[in-house]
Design a protein that fits this description.
By secondary structure, the chain is mainly beta. 4% of the residues lie in helices and 48% in strands. Strands 14, 15, 16, 17 and 18 form a five-stranded antiparallel β-sheet that branches. Strands 1-21-20-19 form a four-stranded antiparallel β-sheet. Strands 2-3-4-5 form a four-stranded antiparallel β-sheet, with no helix packed on it. It is globular. Bound molecules: beta-D-mannopyranose.
Length: 319
C-alpha cells in the first residue's frame, strides 16, 4: 500500500524499513512480553534505543539496545538496564514506560523523561545519564495524570521547556508546554495544541511523541493522535512546526497523519492499530531522519524520511 500515485501526501514521507520489525522480544536474553516505544540516541558510532520492555507480569522496565547501523545487529543488555524502583520511588509501582531522551549540552547529560505508572495513574519522571548504563533519578516532576513528556534540548529565556499531555476534564484534550528553571519545578503551564474534534484522526487525544528537533525552519514536532472507532482506538502520527525563538507559537500543523497503522505488524499485536514513537535521529549532513516507533505495543520498527521533504511538506500545510 506504500507508493501511492499521489506524491505530495504526508503518508508518503516516511518509508518503512523492509526488515521491520527491527527489534522483537526474540532479541532479548530473558523472557518478556513486548519491546516497544523506545527512546533513540546517536552515541558516537552507535544507535542506542532505550526500549520499553514489558515483562510477563505486565510491568515495564527499560533495556538498552545498541546497533552500528541502527537497523540490525542489535546487542541488547543481558539484564534489564533500568528497573522500576518501587521502594525509593513508589510512583514507579506499576512500572516505567515510554522514555524520551534529549541531550542537554549545557549539563553534559542525556535527560530521560519517562512515564512512572503510579497507583494514582501515570505521571512524569526524569532521570539523567551520560552512558546509558548508570542513571541518576530526579524523581517525579509532574503529577498524575500526565504522560508522554518530551524535553527541548536547551533553555528559552533562561528556562527549560517540556511538552506533555496532562489529562484534564472538559473538552479538547491538548498538548501542553511548561517551563522550569531547574528541570524539577515546572510552571507557566500553557496549551500548545488541541485535538481537532469530530471525525479527525486526532480528535480524541493528542500527545507529544519524540523530543522536538531543531531545524532552520523551526522546531519539528511529531505527535500522536487518537481516533476512537466502533472497533477501538487508532493511534497515528502527525507533524507540527513551532517557531524557533518562540516555541509557544505553532506555525504549521499537518492535516494528514504521516504514519498510520497499515502493515500487519502495526495492525495486530497486544494493542492493534497503534504506531507510537518516542525517538527519532537526525543526520543533518545526510538529510536523513530515522523515526523509530513501536508497533501495536508489541515490537520496534523503523521508518526513514528526508528532512528536507518533511519540512517542504509541512511548510506547504495551511498555517
Ligand atoms: C498510549 C501510551 C503508549 C501506548 C499507546 C497505545 O497512551 O500509553 O504507551 O503505546 O497508548 O496503547
Amino acid at each position: 500500500m506504500n507508493g501511492s500515485k499521489f506524491t505530495n501526501l504526508g503518508v508518503n514521507l516516511f518509508k518503512r524499513c523492509p526488515s521491520n520489525p527491527i527489534l522483537t522480544t526474540f532479541d532479548l536474553h530473558y523472557p518478556a512480553n513486548a519491546i516497544f516505544n523506545a527512546a533513540a540516541a546517536q552515541v558516537g558510532g552507535e544507535t542506542v534505543l532505550l526500549s520499553r520492555v514489558e515483562d510477563l507480569r505486565g510491568i515495564s522496565h527499560f533495556n538498552v539496545c545498541r546497533s552500528k547501523n541502527g537497523v540490525s545487529g542489535w546487542a541488547t543488555d543481558p539484564q534489564p538496564t533500568l528497573m522500576p524502583d518501587r521502594q525509593g520511588h513508589p510512583e514507579e509501582n506499576w512500572g516505567i514506560e515510554d522514555p524520551r531522551v534529549t541531550w542537554l549540552e549545557e549539563l553534559g547529560v542525556w535527560a530521560v523523561v519517562y512515564t512512572a505508572y503510579s497507583r494514582r495513574g501515570p505521571q512524569v519522571s526524569l532521570a539523567t545519564t551520560t552512558d546509558f548504563r548508570a542513571y541518576e533519578r530526579m524523581g517525579s516532576v509532574l503529577p498524575p495524570e500526565d504522560k508522554n513528556a518530551a524535553l527541548f534540548p536547551r533553555r528559552f529565556k533562561g528556562d527549560w521547556l517540556i511538552l506533555h499531555r496532562p489529562v484534564s476534564s472538559g473538552q479538547d484534550p491538548a498538548i501542553w508546554l511548561s517551563s522550569s528553571p531547574d528541570l524539577k519545578h515546572w510552571s507557566e503551564h500553557t496549551v500548545l495544541m488541541e485535538t481537532r474534534r469530530g471525525a479527525w484522526w486526532d480528535a480524541v487525544r493528542i500527545g507529544p511523541c519524540p523530543p522536538p528537533l531543531e531545524t532552520r525552519q523551526g522546531w519539528l514536532i511529531c505527535y500522536h493522535g487518537v481516533r476512537s472507532t466502533a472497533a477501538g482506538a487508532i493511534y497515528r502520527l502527525g507533524l507540527a512546526l513551532l517557531d524557533l525563538d518562540d516555541p509557544w507559537k505553532v506555525i504549521r500543523r499537518s492535516e494528514d497523519w504521516v504514519m498510520g497503522p497499515q502493515e500487519p505488524y502495526e495492525r495486530v499485536g497486544d494493542v492493534g492499530n497503534v504506531v507510537f514513537s518516542c525517538g527519532w535521529i537526525l543526520d543533518e549532513e545526510m538529510d536523513a531522519l530515522r523515526l523509530y516507533y513501536g508497533a501495536a505495543d508489541t515490537c520496534m520498527c523503523l521508518a526513514t524520511a528526508r528532512l528536507s521533504d518533511v519540512l517542504d511538506y509541512l511548510l506547504a500545510c495551511p498555517e
